[in-house]
Design brief:
Mean pLDDT is 80; it is low at 6-11. With 71 residues, this protein is mostly beta strands. The protein contains no helices and five strands.
């Protein structure tokens, strides 16, 4: 009897696009939406977003999520 395949990771990913505003830090750059820790299977394609280094903001053209640099 064949065993069912094991999941690749046992760590649950954060839901994609669950919020409309995200605070990001310098360590999170380069900025992409969805963020790397989010699940991709139920989201739009990953897109990299420009953000100004000093208190910048950016908005995703796919889902409208708003990112604010807080460092």
């Amino acid at each position: 009897m064949a065993e069912s395949p094991q999941p690749r990771s046992t760590v649950a990913a954060a839901p994609a696009n669950a919020q409309t505003r995200y605070e990001v830090r310098q360590a999170d750059l380069p900025l992409s939406c969805p963020l790397p820790e989010m699940a991709l299977w139920n989201s739009h394609p990953r897109v990299y977003l420009p953000i100004v280094q000093d208190g910048g903001e950016s908005q995703c053209p796919y889902c409208g999520a708003h990112f604010v640099l807080v460092d």
